Every structure is written in C-alpha cells, then in structure tokens.
Amino acid sequence: MFNLDYWGYHLYVASPGNKIDIEFKKNASRYDMHSIGIELCNFGPVTVRNNRYSNIYGQPIDQDDVIKLDFRGYQYWEQYDPRQIAKLKTVLLELLEIYPEIKYTPLITTSGFEINRNALKQKPGIYSHGNVRSDKSDCYPSPLLIEMLTSLNLTNG
Q1: 83-120 pLDDT, tens per residue?
Q2: How far is it, in rounded angstroms, from Cα 19 to Cα 15?
Q3: DSSP symbol at 109
Q4: CB atoms within 10 A of CB 147
Q5: What gap in Å lies between CA 95 and CA 117, rounded to an integer?
Q6: Where are the beta strands (DSSP E) in the chain?
Q7: What is the torsional sign of CA 103, 107, 109, 115?
Q8: 3-state DSSP call for residue 113?
C-alpha cells in the first residue's frame, strides 16, 4: 500500500536465517529500495495428520484448498485463489507499463523459485521472496501462478 514514489522494508535479506553469500547481505536495504513488494495472502505450507490438513497455526484447511507440491521441505500448500492470481496479473501488467525495463522472470519453472543470482545482483525482473531468501517459501511454485507468469511472455534467463 505504498505510493510508487516511496519504498518500504519488505525483504530482510540480512536475516540471520538467510543462507546466502555474505556479500549480498551487506547493504541489504538496497534490495528494499529498488524493488516493489507484492504480498499474496496465503498460509503457504500445510501439514497433514490423520488425513486432516492444517495451516501453520494448527487451523484446519479444506482438502479442496490444498495442493500437493514438493518445495523447500514441504509436501502440501494452501492453493492460491484464482481471483488472487488474476488480480496479480493485472497489477504486474500495470507495473510492466510503468517499468518497461522489467523483461525477466525466473518464475516460470519450479526451479525458478529458488535463490537466484540475478535477483541478488539486482537485475530488473519479477522475483519471489524465495529468490533472495533461503529461509522463505513465498511465493511457492504453484502451477496456477507459473501459468499466469508464463502468459506475460517475459524472458527466462
């Protein structure tokens, strides 16, 4: 909810749990200053016990809202809402109009959601929190999200 003329702390690249090269943790606020954070509200990893799914707070998650996907040590995830992904596409298209230099996204393959040196080197592009933080799992590589990002026709490399 920031005006694009301003920036806010949203990445915390210097987090002690982030297992990236120390060179990238120096002056970590530069990542926040030169990026736009978009939050997708989602519980992320889901646990399963006795055929019941739960979010990180132990609250039940309906099976229809769960996707099976092996990513960063978890097997199950709360599915993104298709309306959320559609709105994200609208926002990204608007930002691509404002910032035409953004022509890159690694996020069109499952492996594209891992640590990414281009993100760490601040190459313009669309990245996930997990591209700069080894201790974060958002966004996760949902097929719905990958399909939408692929439709943007950006480069992947």
Answers
A1: 999 999 999 999 999 999 999 999 999 999 999 999 99
A2: 9
A3: S
A4: 11
A5: 22
A6: 45-49, 52-54, 60-61, 66-71, 74-78
A7: positive
A8: helix
In 3D, which of 119, 129, 120, 125 has the Cα closest to residue 149?
125
Strand order from edge to edge, sheet including 60-61:
60-61, 52-54, 45-49, 74-78, 66-71
Q: Residue 70, by phi and psi: left (phi above 0), alpha (psi -120 to 50) or beta?
A: beta
pTM summary value: 0.92
CB atoms within 10 A of CB 45: 19
Phi-psi region of 72 (alpha: psi -120 to 50; beta: other; left: phi over 0): left
Answer for the pair 20, 132: CB distance below 8 angstroms, yes or no.
yes
Q: How far is CA 151 from CA 5, 83, 95, 143, 144, in A?
A: 28, 16, 15, 12, 11
What pLDDT digit, counting tens, does each position of 20-44 carry? 999 999 989 999 999 999 999 999 9
Closest to 141 in 3D by CA, of 32, 36, 67:
67
